[in-house]
Specification:
The structure holds 3 protein chains of 3 kinds. Chain A is 78% helix and 0% strand. Chain A is mainly alpha-helical. In chain A, helix 4 (64-91) packs antiparallel against helix 5. By secondary structure, chain B is mainly alpha-helical. Chain B has one domain. The radius of gyration of chain B is 19 Å and the shape is elongated. Chain C is mainly alpha-helical. Classes of the chains: A mainly alpha, B mainly alpha, C mainly alpha. The A-C interface holds A 40, 44, 48-53, 58-60, 62-63, 66-67, 70, 106, 109, 112-113, 116-117, 120-121, 123-124, 207, 222, 225-226, 229-230, 232-233, 236-237, 240-241, 243, 245-254 and C 1-5, 11, 14-18, 20-21, 23-25, 27-28, 31-32, 34-36, 39-40, 42-43, 46-51, 53, 55, 59-61, 65, 68.
């Protein structure tokens, strides 16, 4: 607390204090919730009912509208987690460890969505639920990386050490992700089965692409919403002894 | 690390050597422990023909991958013990508090770990090659890839070992957090052997393995040192 | 932009791909709902536990906050 910090804008300090973050994000929640609801429902209806079916894959192609956004955010989420961990290690900001802890299960859930939808898409397209395709394999490795961070965090009983250890692991994972992806890619070209090819049109027709953009935006909003909700719940838990949280709990009750 | 008065390089070098000698001596006093990963390595090689097929042509097709996966698992098994004994008897605490740079001390411990696991695994691998009917062309590539690869595995495993040393029953957790990071080494190691068996040059793959080793040498001692500080002092 | 299916039945079956498409969306929906609900429920539990705590117990609160 007595640590002298480098000069930072005021919002940084507000974000850095649990109470500041909590009160700052309260008005954001309804907007984020509304935006993600509208975008996700709109995008899903558009993608399911109104986007044209793919010429080769038919209607199974409609899974792309959840598969790609979730895969997208699963990967981005790892970097969110690692950057939060790095900020925590460098600036000793407690809140960023909270953010890192909040990002881990969220990212793992999104990775799981992309794996499951990928398998369900694979069955009608390739005739099998699972192929050792480069991207699927990379996603699986990403899932393991998330599980490792989560498991390590839970294994520590001391909360502060847990945050730091998980941050170190997340950073090591970040340094390795490009290497893992490149090597899996290379491994795949080595073993590529001739019969199976990932059919991705080089350029999607706009009528197919627009709902995808809507869904990606919707997933982004939902990601931000859940991340903030997780952080707020964790703040309540960690600050449960402090005055403002007790106050808050009572005022909500009345 | 924060001490402004730089410790003379001679003392640092001597400390490095002293730790190296100490750890090697300890390893040789506990030869049984040292032998465990090697016995595991050979034993699983016996299971494969029993579980899959004794037919030599099929075994030969599987051999590069199997030998590499087993070397990886053996290295993983031994990684848990890297810091455990020193953590229990308090030596690790002394190392962390010592004026010598911790990453250098960590490097000494990793080097010893490789000398007593990775190197014997490599020397033993031709035996496994014979047991699993690896074609003669693959042997050279197998040994070179294992020398480079097991060193990289020791480096990566050290990070996991440091993160889990203070956790009771951290062994399984160690496997979970380290195995994804092992994958590139496995991919390039196994395919180097496969390429040599197929009559192609494994030089490119071995170069990549060397690069992975160099990268892990750069990253791992520092990450491990940081992880040890977290494990010990929170 | 128009509705791509002739009938609702065609929309459900999606030319044979229906089960895969609908299962994907259902699974995603379930996970997303769980993602949103779990922190909300956790926060509610925490708040309830705090509100149940006797006012002032162990904390520097005085009597005037009691009525809230």
């Amino acid at each position: 607390m007595a640590r002298t910090r480098p000069i930072m804008p005021a919002w940084f300090h507000r974000l850095g204090s649990p109470k500041g973050f909590y009160s700052m994000t309260t008005p954001w929640l309804p907007w984020l919730a509304a935006a993600s609801l509208v975008l996700l429902i709109g995008g899903a209806v558009w993608g399911l009912g109104f986007a044209p079916a793919d010429a080769k894959q038919g209607n199974s192609f409609r899974i792309i509208y959840i598969h790609v956004p979730s895969a997208f955010l699963a990967l981005a989420g790892y970097y969110v987690m690692a950057v939060a961990g790095a900020i925590g290690l460098i600036w000793r900001m407690k809140l960023s460890f909270v953010a890192m802890k909040a990002a881990a299960p969220l990212g793992a859930a999104l990775t799981l969505i992309s794996l499951v939808t990928g398998a369900l898409w694979g069955k009608p397209t390739w005739g099998t639920y699972w192929v050792w395709d480069a991207r699927i394999t990379s996603m699986l490795v990403l899932f393991f990386l998330y599980l490792g961070v989560i498991a390590l965090h839970y294994a520590y009983t001391n909360g502060e050490a847990a945050g730091k250890a998980a941050a170190v692991l997340a950073l090591v994972g970040t340094a390795n992700i490009p290497i893992i992806y490149k090597s899996v890619d290379w491994w795949y070209t080595l073993h590529q089965p001739a019969t199976i090819k990932l059919t991705e049109a080089p350029s999607m027709h706009p009528s197919m692409f627009q709902p995808l953009l809507v869904m990606i935006a919707g997933f982004y909003c939902l990601y931000a919403l859940v991340l903030i909700l997780n952080i707020r719940a964790e703040i309540l838990h960690r600050e449960r002894g402090s005055h403002w949280v007790v106050e808050l709990a009572r005022s909500r009750r009345s | 690390m924060s001490a402004p008065d730089v410790v003379p390089t001679l003392a640092t070098g001597r400390a490095f050597r002293a730790l190296l000698v100490r750890d090697l001596t300890l390893a040789f006093r506990h030869r049984g422990e040292m032998a465990n990963p090697l016995i595991f390595f050979v034993m699983v090689a016996t299971l494969i023909p029993l579980g899959v097929t004794p037919e030599s042509r099929q075994l030969a097709a599987l051999a590069p991958g199997i030998i590499w996966v087993m070397a990886l698992l053996a290295s993983l098994l031994s990684a848990e013990s890297l810091f455990l004994a020193d953590y229990r008897d308090g030596t690790l605490e002394q190392l962390v508090l010592s004026p010598q740079p911790l990453w250098l001390m960590v490097l000494a411990k990793i080097t010893v770990h490789w000398l007593v696991t990775g190197l014997p695994l490599t020397l033993l691998s031709p035996l496994l090659g014979i047991m699993l009917s690896l074609p003669a062309a693959g042997f050279g590539s197998l040994m070179v890839s294992l020398v480079l690869g097991t060193a990289a595995l020791s480096m990566i495993g050290a990070i996991g070992a440091a993160l889990t040393v203070a956790i009771s029953r951290g062994g399984l957790l160690l496997s979970l957090i380290v195995m994804p990071l092992y994958m590139p080494v496995l991919i390039f190691g196994a395919s180097a052997v496969q390429l040599a068996v197929d009559g192609m040059s494994p030089a490119g793959n071995l170069a990549v393995l060397g690069a992975l080793l160099a990268f892990s040498c750069l990253l791992s001692p520092f990450a491990t040192a940081g992880a040890l500080r977290v494990s010990l002092h929170g | 932009m128009s509705f791509q299916f002739d009938s609702l039945t065609a929309f459900y079956t999606m030319g044979g791909h229906g089960p895969f498409v609908w299962l994907s969306y259902l699974f995603t929906l379930m996970v997303l709902v769980w993602l949103v609900a779990s922190p909300l429920l956790r926060a509610r539990r925490l708040r309830a536990a705090l509100a149940r705590r006797r006012p002032g117990a162990g904390h520097h609160r005085s009597a005037e906050e009691k009525e809230s």
